[in-house]
Amino acid sequence: xxxxxxxxxxxxxxxxxxxxxxxxxxxxxxxxxxxxxxxxxxxxxxxxxxxxxxxxxxxxxxxxxxxxxxxxxxxxxxxxxxxxxxxxxxxxxxxxxxxxxxxxxxxxxxxxxxxxxxxxxxxxxxxxxxxxxxxxxxxxxxxxxxxxxxxxxxxxxxxxxxxxxxxxxxx
Length: 171
Ligand code: GAR
Known about the structure:
This protein is α/β, with parallel strands linked by helices and about 170 residues long. The protein has six helices and seven strands, in the order E-H-E-H-E-H-E-H-E-H-E-E-H.
């Protein structure tokens, strides 16, 4: 049985997609969240998944005592220091075609930039934000008639499909 730890800070829709995907697949999913009132904690509870509220400063200590095969960042809005990254393999998902639009509000910035396409990137985590080696990318057209909300929905659907498959391959 493989074990993965999903890191999330907010909404948790990717976390939920990952939990559903691995439900009958001999992979144990747990959650680490750094925000006490994040919606993702409620999702974990409803899904019957073990969750760990770990303040950012205590991440190293927690991972020293709790080992997983893969660490999966999904909307975890913190920059992990090198000493934490040294403890295992960390991957992240980002809603743009990296190296374009690193950082926050990537979908909105791509939408407003006039780009004809954007997408989703999954990459290994290094200490520079949204910058490690890319594992998988998927493109998405920005149609002229699309609203920002529609583009966001499309990107999130792509994330929910792509991320679990990439995680499975990595395991
Ligand atoms: C996702 O779109 C993810 O790609 C993005 O945060 C969202 C989290 O949504 N991550 C980043 O922007 C990382 N720089 P979720 O909480 O519903 O999974």
